[in-house]
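Q: I have 347 residues here and want to know how they pack in 3D. Can you give me a structure?
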Amino acid sequence: MRRVIALLLVALATLFAGPALAKPAAPLRVLYLDQSVGWKHAPVARPEGGGLASSEIAMKAIGEESRAFTAEVTQDAREITPERLQRVDVLVFYTTGALPLLPEVWAAVQQRVAAGKLGFVGLHSATDTAWSYDGPGETYTQFINGHFAGHPWTQGTPIRIETLDPDLPVVAMWPVGFDYAEEIYQHSDFDPSKVRVLQTLDFAGAPLKRPYAVPVAWARQIGQGRLFFTNLGHTPSTWDDPRFRKQIVEAVNWTGGRTSGRATPDTSRQFLWQLKALLAYEPVAGRDDKAIIGRLMEMDPAWQTATAKRIADLRTVYPQKPDSDRAPFEAAYKAVLAEVQARGGVR
């Protein structure tokens, strides 16, 4: 009898002690690079008298408050070495210009990401960064999937953002559709087949439009590793927004492998938003845009891909200044619009 009681006591002790003995996962180790080679944004500008930039202070505080990560900061890419990368779980870039990153270091970054040993997060001007590289893997622009090609939406410009995957932790803190004020980049060298767009500009009713889609945030699966980029972060007040701070936490968690979430490329949905941008550019009273889009979403995928590219390429001929020649843009715009309307059933 005593033996039975003893065994029961041991079992109960094990049952209740088990969870208490479980140790929480150690905070992820973040290395935040906010080096500027050329233009320098306010959040990465260090005080003349010394000290950290506001985004560096924020990055450290966000990690401490969330207990999700610890952050080291540097404004010198030369401090990143293959050896140091072995002590980093997530690399975060808020950078501009041609970084002095050695070829062997960039190769090591890509190898560790592909092996699932390193996550990568790009903030705002991380896409205004590039340097010559002919080593193994991809160039930086190919890796992050885009390069700065202007920002019609400057600081303080009212914008509307649509969150496309509100169930994913990296964007779940934002409403499905919301108004904001930020500087937003448009990009060249963007390959829709490589990424899943998680947020995009919504031009319906927006004061400043373009006839092509402008992604705001995207995710990419690279081998066993993950990459996340967001356009946000230019405006200092954005860094005080609890939603943006939460997004940094979740981006670190996701790229660091602590949370799940799909990064499957969404080319069909990106085609949908190219159509929405094209049709919203010059609204036509009585035209049933919803019906047009519905018909076109049933079209041959090869035609959809080609048409999405034609719409995206309107960026390259869009007039950069009020007095620029609009003829090349008007010709390309009217041609693709005419085909979209015709195939969509407009007579």
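Q: Anything worth noting?
A: Residues 267-343 form one domain. The radius of gyration is 23 Å.
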